[in-house]
Each structure stands twice: as C-alpha cells, then as structure tokens.
Amino acid sequence: MNENRLASLTLSGFKSISRLDDFQFERLNIMIGANGSGKSNLIAFFRMLCFMLPGAGNLQTFIQQNGRASSLLHDGPTKTREIEAHLKFVTSSGTNEYAFRLFYAAPDTLIFADERCRFSNSRYTTQAPWKMFAGGHPEAQLIGRAATDNTARVILNLLRRYVVYQFHNTSLTARIKTYWDVSDNLMLKEDAANLGPVLLRLRETQPKYYQRIVETIRQILPFFSDFVLEPEFGKIYLRWREKGSDNDFGAHQASDGMLRTLSLVTLLLQPVEALPSLVVLDEPELGLHPYALKIISGLLKSLALERQIIVATQSASLLEEFEPQDVVVVEREGRSSTFRRLQTEPLKEWLEEYSLGELWNKNVLGGRPKEAAI
C-alpha cells in the first residue's frame, strides 16, 4: 500500500471556500453536492497546485487563464485579500507540511506573501520548526529550494505526483482526437490526450495490463474488438476495430461516452507505478451508462488500495457503490462551501432498506439544492 498520502488540508479565501479547517482525507473520497456547492472549487485548488509546481511562470499563467485573481478570491478582492493553504502529508518516515499565503496585488493578480515547509520525524513527539521562504515573489520558491533542501524536495515530488483528470472535452478540437508523439507515453495526461501512446507502450512492454484494459472495455462496449495502434512518422492517432468488421475507426468517430470510457478504464487499470499518488477525478460519470459506472466504481475501490483518490460526482448510481465513510457531502451555507464526511452509525437503520444513492435522492444525506434565504 502506498504510504505517501495527503492527510489534511486547511484552506481559506479560495473561490466559494471561505474557510476549510483541517479537513481529513481518507484513501477514497467521493464528493457529492448540488450544482455550485463547491466540489469543483476544491478540485480547482488541486488543479492550481498541479499547475504551479512544474516550473517558473505557471502560477501567473493559471491566474490569467482562470479569470485573474478576482475570480479566485472568495467573493473577490473587496472582501478577501488572500488565499491561505496548509497541507499535511503522511509518509513512512513522518509528516511533511507545506503552507503558503497568496496575497492580492495589482494588476489583479496574486503573489506569495509567505511560503514555508517542515518535516516532523515520527520517532519524535515534538514538531520541527518551519523553514520559511521569502515573500513577495510571483512563483513558488519551493521549486528552487528543492535543489538544496531535502524537505522541500520531498514535498515538491509529492505534489508533482498529484493529477486532476477531467475527460469532458470530446469536441472536434479535443487533444485526444489529434495525432500525438509516440514517445510521450509515461503517464496519461489529464485530458487523455496521449491515450494512444500510453496504450501502445502497455501493449509492447506490459501486455497483461493492456489485455485487462481491452477486456474491461469490452464489458462496457460489447462491440469493441481491439485498438489499432500504428505509429506514423513518430506519431499515433487513436483507432480501434469493432467485432464483425475489418474497418478501422478513429477517435473522431467515437461517441463522447465511448471516449470517456476508453480514457477512464485505461487510467484506472494502468500499472500502479505509472499512476500519480493522488488521482483527482471530476464527474467521471458524464455520458456513461449505469452499468459502466458499476464497473468504474469497482476499479476506483481497487485502486484506492494503492493510491489516494478524490472524486466529484453528481451521480446517485455511482454513489450507491460506495460506503458512507467514503463520502464527503458538500453544501453551500450562504456564500461559503462546507465539507462533511458521512458517518456509518447514524445511517445504519436507513441503509437496511435504502442504498446511499436512494438516501441522497431522498435528501437524507444532504447535498441537495436548497432555497436561498430571503
């Protein structure tokens, strides 16, 4: 079992998250809630982390691409001037922590007011002192410090192993429908753009995993026969064949649900070493049949034995495949989002007659739309 996991998060001032105090993450975290409750905003925070840490300049690019600072600060800069975050990671050696404050600055951007990290060895009862970085910079200093500081290096490596996956874009210009470099095949991209190269690598180097992916896809898509993975001048275009036909079909001919199925199954059935330590999935149920969701939920539960998972969903069909302790209910209280993990005991009698999905539809769990107070 993977021992590197996100233990808790304190976050304030980010989008609809006014204040989230020391929220505890488990290995499997299924977030449910009404539209606009804040599920996607928590995922957006992880997306910001993923975006800002690969290299210099990325945080400012993220801010510009997401409506500038005014769209990221809770209720805008007239009410909220900073975003504050504190993450704790549990490893086999102890607890690593990373914290930062992003402060509002002209012209409608964010800069680091302060940034710090520390490692507390599990053999000792006292916490280590914080290692403070200088403030006033537009990008994370953690990147530069990692070259000389072991704690910063460990934390940076942990955060770089976090990926937010969203397979919503299946439009004509979606990257999954383009030719992709064969050599870009080590890890599936967040939008499955390199699905073809990843599948080709698995077929050639780890055929058991490839075959399992193909067989699982056939359970969901009975007409599916196999992928056609033929490089052309160093690039590959996603193709497949159907049973009873010798025609090749391309990604541009696939339905939205089919492309998402291919992406999800490949993601969840890769060798563990090829997967990020934290897998974040935004509405994986989009366009999928309830039977497909049953298979996907089984893959998620299996993967949670090795990797940490966060899923945001609106699907009662997907929800009923999980246990109460896996579920986080997200609700909107006034202008702020709240996050509450379900407990099994209060629901024990209900669960004798109803599934979790049915209880959600009956509003027993919460996480349903509420009328705004007048």
Task: Give structural notes.
With 374 residues, the protein is an alpha+beta fold. It folds into two domains: 1-161 and 276-288 and 303-374, Rossmann fold (3-Layer(aba) Sandwich); 171-275, no CATH class. It is built from twelve helices and 17 strands. It has helices at residues 39-52, 58-65, 68-72, 142-145, 150-159, 195-205, 207-220, 256-268, 290-303, 316-319, 348-351, 356-361; strands at residues 5-14, 17-24, 28-33, 82-90, 94-105, 109-121, 131-133, 162-165, 180-181, 224-228, 235-236, 239-242, 248-250, 278-282, 308-313, 327-333, 336-341. Strands 2-1-4-5-6-7 form a six-stranded antiparallel sheet. Strands 8-14-15-3-16-17 form a six-stranded mixed sheet, with helices on both faces. β1 and β2 form a beta hairpin. α7 (207-220) runs antiparallel to α8. The longest helix has 14 residues, at 39-52. 40% of the residues are buried. The mean pLDDT is 93.
* Helix proportion range: 25-40%
The multimeric state of the shown protein is single chain
Radius of gyration: 22 Å
Strand content: 25-35%
Number of helices: 12
Shape estimate: globular
Tell me the CATH superfamily of the largest domain.
P-loop containing nucleotide triphosphate hydrolases
Strand order of the largest sheet: 2-1-4-5-6-7
Topology as a string of helices (H) and strands (E):
EEEHHHEEEEHHEEHHEEEEHEHEHEEHH
For the report, how would you describe the main beta sheet?
A: 6 strands, antiparallel
- Give average pLDDT, whole number: 93
Contiguous low-pLDDT stretches (5 residues minimum) are none
